[in-house]
Each structure stands twice: as structure tokens, then as C-alpha cells.
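INFO batch 0412 | record 1 of 1 | parsing
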Amino acid sequence: MEIFGGFMVMMSIISLFLAVVWLIMPFVVFAIKGKQDRTLEVLESIEGRLAALETALQQAKPVKPEEDETGQATQGGSPAETSDGSNI
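INFO prediction complete | emitting C-alpha cells
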């Protein structure tokens, strides 16, 4: 009989644990679903912005870099100039 009593105690502990899980699970599932829906909306907006950026880049004309006397391409100014346009 002690084996049966120990088995019943073990089953009651397991059933209590499963009841708690059963009560908490819907809140966990709905919270994850809401976050997933929000992530999908953000992803769609990012995809739209990326498509607009790709379209703008395809329509833009390519710009050839300027060449100095040595034939090397420059970035639009002498190498001795700083970013604010003043000479070093």
C-alpha cells in the first residue's frame, strides 16, 4: 500500500504542476503572437524602404570620380584639405 500512496503523491504533484502550466500557457502564446505580428509589420516596412532605395539607386546616374595629374581618382578635393574645406 505504501507504493500506491507514494505513487498518488507523485501523481498529485505532477498534476498540480501541469495545471499551473495549463493556466499560464495561453498568456505566453498570445504574448509571443503579438510580438511576432509586430515584428512582421516592422519587417514589411523595412522591405518597402529597401525596395524604394533600390529603385532610387537604379534610376541614379553613375558618377565618374575625378582624376588628378597622376591619373589616380580623388574624392573631390585635394588630399591636404580637411572635411570642412580648410587646408592643413
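INFO post-check: The mean pLDDT is 82.
INFO record closed
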